[in-house]
Amino acid sequence: MDITVRVEVQYVAPENALIRDVLQMFRTPAWVRFMVRYISPHLKNAAPADKSVMDNLASWTVDSSSSGAKVGAKRAAGSKRPISSVSSAGTCAEDCVICLSELQNGDEFVSLPCGHQFHLPCIRSWLKLRSTCPSCRFQFRKAFSGSYAVRTLNSALLLKQEHRPMPKEEILNTCVGRETVRAVVNVTLSQIAAHAKQSQYPCVLNALMMHSNGDSFTEAAAADTALAKRSSGGDEETDGGNNNNNDQSRAKRMRVA
Asked: Where does the RING-type domain lie (predicted)?
């Protein structure tokens, strides 16, 4: 199973660094190691429930119309009202702690294996973000478990507003030394078998620049623009092909534990 994580990070560029230097840094093993350390806490804190748990929600749905008859008898006998019961007045024994609304007779709700009860849409949304019961923290199977290897890491350097009118080549040569630059990073991780932890896996690193309006480009695009001003259409096509080959050679491969 693959996991895609999207985060925005801040990075203080080294002294005298240009934007093109930052892009090159985004393609180094050191950047991969930094991002692995950065996203690990995010994956641990935001651990949704496994797909099998989500699939079981339908089988845990409580039939409120049939549960109501059982409640009156149990309460008449003086026993404690079970969490999964529905009162004869048409409301459940407890509120849904997710939306803080009563579980009404006729509502579609779920009784989890731990016994706590929630609206079906509420608990479905909850388990997409967390893998514990909202009431008792009963731990369900997590969607993210085991070992993962970074397969792709796409970094987009966010440009400032003043960069919009500048030529692409000039943007690349802009000094950002000791400045805090921002980047949006998309990391794709693939689960690996326990016996293959020491194996090596290819890791493809891509880096580009992105304007505030969403337009993005790479160094190759900047070079094409500069060449277009000096070359004919035929030369431009030949140079473009060479740039594509260079992009492929810049893909980094490394093992991430």
From this structure: 96-137
